[in-house]
Amino acid sequence: MVHFLTLKDYSREEILSLISKAIKYKRTPQSSISFSGKSIALIFEKPSTRTRASMAVAAYQIGVFPITYNWSELQLGRGEPIKDTARVLSRYHDAIAARVYFHNVLEELAEYASVPVINMLSNLFHPLQALADFMTIFEKFGGFKDVKIAFVGDGRDNVLNSLLIIANKLGVEIRIASPREYWPTENFLNEIGCRAVTITEDPIEAIDGANVIYTDVFVSMGQESEREKRLKDFLPSYQVNDRLVRFADQNFIFMHCLPAKRNEEVTDSVIEDVQHSVVWDQAENRLYTAKAVLSKLIYENI
Ligand code: CP
């Protein structure tokens, strides 16, 4: 059974094939429309706008009926074991997708489900987002050759972890600028198979000549109690603003997985800069990459 939990177990060719399929869906939307009588469970333990909407619309458009469940409305919220839920939902649905606080919940779902399990974000990874981001980079630069990504912010961010996995497989350079306390551990980098990454405390060193500047919120869902400390640790040095972006390549693109906290990790001027900011294209591409993933897992996972 092929799942979609981290992308660690996907080859370079499989990732490129998902991106190329997503681009085909974008160019010819009618190519994906069908009806199959299949269905998918979309389970949310945490809030979501892009993932919830893109997965539901993508499923519907490829002929897979989506049913969205809030965690607390399921018996899961009253303590029914994850493994029981996995086995029961597998009897009705052709795939189970979940957004969870802790990644090990997805691993348990995958262990007991008899249908593919898809990670719609965990504390450790957000592979659907990273796939859409690499599709966006491909569209903007016509490929990945010589692309240099500078990630500025939390070096242990879940989106960054997924970007690192794909970048490593595709041979794309990533530089991380983060306070030392937030650097990824060597163990974790080894675990995700990340061999080549530059980590620095200096955002200018990371951004120097970069084609892509990427950031994410400094306080993620579930980290609200650390808000005061985190803002003190990241601001003002790691805010992506007009002063910092001057060090990037002149044709750089600005990326953010959204939602953004304006004037915390990025200024209004940078995110609204229509010449460089591609955040709306990233969000749109979540739809096409979701279709590519669902199509692979539901129709080809036999
Ligand atoms: N980027 C992302 O996953 O957005 P949502 O939290 O709105 O789904």
What would your notes on this structure say?
The protein has a five-stranded parallel β-sheet with strand order 7-6-5-8-9. It has a four-stranded parallel β-sheet with strand order 2-1-3-4, sandwiched between helices. Helix 2 packs across helix 12 (279-299) and helix 3 packs across helix 4. It has helices at 12-27, 50-61, 82-92, 103-112, 127-141, 158-170, 186-191, 203-207, 227-234, 242-245, 268-271, 279-299; strands at 38-44, 64-70, 95-99, 117-119, 148-152, 173-177, 198-200, 212-215, 253-256. It has two domains: 12-125 and 283-300, Aspartate/ornithine carbamoyltransferase (Rossmann fold), CATH 3.40.50.1370; 129-277, 3-Layer(aba) Sandwich (Rossmann fold). 41% of the residues lie in helices and 14% in strands. The model has no long low-confidence stretch (mean pLDDT 96). Strand 3, helix 4 (103-112) and strand 4 (117-119) form a beta-alpha-beta unit. The chain has twelve helices and nine strands. It is of the alpha/beta class. Phosphoric acid mono(formamide)ester binds at residues 48-51, 121, 129, 257-259.
Please sum up the structure shown.
The protein is α/β, with parallel strands linked by helices. The protein contains twelve helices and nine strands.
